[in-house]
Design brief:
nine-stranded mixed β-sheet, five-stranded mixed β-sheet, disordered C terminus, alpha+beta, 11 helices, BirA Bifunctional Protein, domain 2, Rossmann fold
């Protein structure tokens, strides 16, 4: 084991995490926002700055960065290229697509000093088409083209609610694909849906994919990705026999169209949406390619993922009313090491904290040390549990013995083992335990 000094040790004492500590006799209000909102606010993950607008504090940003890394990995595998478009798009483009009139009430707009109107984009079909329309020539050899970004979006919700689940400002991944014809676009569509399936499986929370409503985006084909939750604002209909699934906005039936068995109704949170757009935007915005003597409109697909909504949804599903729970792939840190309290008999074992941190660092396990030695281990265990770290290592009474032993708490499974340094290496090197953790080793 290397004893080299580690300069960048993550420490709770240096962490900006404004925790809301309630008095023991405090009365907790029920029905306020959502479980995910209350927990992330209380544990210093987010902070509301305006109605429907939130700051992501350091732990919240780490979660988002880990989710972005998963998305980037899947998009790279799918052959998509990452870019970044301006947040403002000329309102004239939205007028050309027809959406300035149809959804104008949901748009945030700004006017520059020359009285030119701009839209703060809730989605980027107009912007991406304008970009490609100005590139001449795009040929069939350049296609399929897959361009995506991860950025903040804006929607003027009449009644923002449920914290990050329904906000005015949110972080979203939007991918736009371009093909020569509808058949090729359908093939691209299917491949991107496979990437989405892979992503949601990596997150590790059960999801459903349903036939979706085209809504304000439009197009000839649409699917939605949902997490089932009582707090969800959508209703999805599922057939347990043949697997048919649909949003009730599309078809509100009691029996399945495919097998005639009963459909079960579930409240759900929409976290992803895919559309086969055909030439709905490319034609009016003149986004074309050359295939012969005359340019033809590009055939489009668009694919959205609400990243901040995914974060809120998994917290909503996995957590209790008292404590946060994260999927291992998204936890802000995967391991929290608790050092002995200052002045205690175990204080002599405190140097083991950095040694264990070094071991986990070499194993690419994302770790933080709670070095607030003025607090008891019990109090810090309480905070680590509420923050939702999947694993907690305690340097306690048995750590000062001749053969030091350390407690490893698997928070998710409510289990504990006592082990030595070699046992820690074996425990976190076990593929069944560490498989999900290692996928994010290069995130932050």
């Amino acid at each position: 084991m290397s004893h080299n000094i580690i300069n960048n040790i993550n420490r709770v004492s240096k962490l900006f995490q404004p925790i809301n500590t309630l008095p023991k006799d405090a009365v907790i209000k029920s029905g306020v926002a959502s479980k995910s909102y209350n927990l992330m606010l209380d544990m210093g993950i987010i902070r509301q700055v305006n109605s429907g607008m939130y700051s992501l504090l350091p732990l919240g940003l780490r979660v988002l960065q880990k989710l972005e890394a998963l998305v980037d990995s899947e998009m790279t595998k799918a052959g998509a290229q990452k870019m970044l478009l301006p947040i403002l798009t000329s309102a004239t483009l939205w007028n050309r697509s027809g959406r300035l009139k149809t959804i104008g009430s949901e748009l945030f707009t700004v006017e520059d000093r020359h009285k030119k109107l701009y839209v703060l984009n809730p989605t980027y079909e107009e912007a991406i088409c304008e970009l490609l329309a100005g590139i001449i020539p795009i040929t069939s050899k350049d296609l399929p083209l897959k361009l995506y970004q991860i950025s903040r979006k804006w929607r003027d919700e009449m009644k923002p609610r449920l914290g990050l689940l329904r906000g005015r400002e949110f972080v979203m991944k939007d991918l736009y694909t371009f093909d020569t014809n509808l058949e090729n676009a359908q093939n691209t569509y299917n491949k991107i849906c496979e990437s989405y399936d892979s992503l949601f499986k990596q997150i590790g929370v059960d999801y459903v994919k349903v036939i979706g409503a085209a809504g304000i985006i439009g197009g000839s084909l649409s699917h939605e990705y949902h997490y089932l939750s009582d707090i969800g604002e959508d209703t999805v209909l599922l057939c347990q026999s043949c697997g048919y699934s649909v949003n009730s906005e599309v078809l509100n039936l009691s029996s399945c169209l495919k097998c005639n068995n009963n459909l079960s109704s579930h409240s759900a949170i929409e976290v992803g949406h895919t559309f086969l757009l055909d030439t709905k935007y490319s034609k009016p915005l003149n986004a074309t390619f050359l295939d012969g003597p005359k340019p033809k409109p590009l055939v489009m697909g668009c694919f959205g993922l609400g990243l901040t909504r995914i974060i809120a949804a998994v917290v909503e599903i996995l957590s209790t009313n008292e404590v946060l729970r994260w999927p291992n792939n998204l936890a802000p840190f995967n391991v929290c090491i608790l050092t002995p309290k200052k002045g205690s008999k175990e204080e002599i074992a405190a140097p083991y904290a950095e040694q264990i941190f070094g071991i986990l660092n070499e194993l690419n396990v994302d770790t933080i040390i709670d070095d607030r030695i003025h607090l008891t281990i019990g109090r810090r265990m309480f905070d680590a549990n509420r923050t939702g770290y999947p694993f907690i290592i305690v340097i306690g009474k048995t750590a000062s013995n001749q053969n030091p032993m350390f407690e490893i708490h698997d928070v998710k499974n409510s289990t504990r083992i006592d082990t030595n340094i070699e046992g820690i290496i074996n425990y976190f090197n076990n593929q069944d335990i560490n498989r999900e953790i290692k996928q994010n080793e290069a995130v932050v």
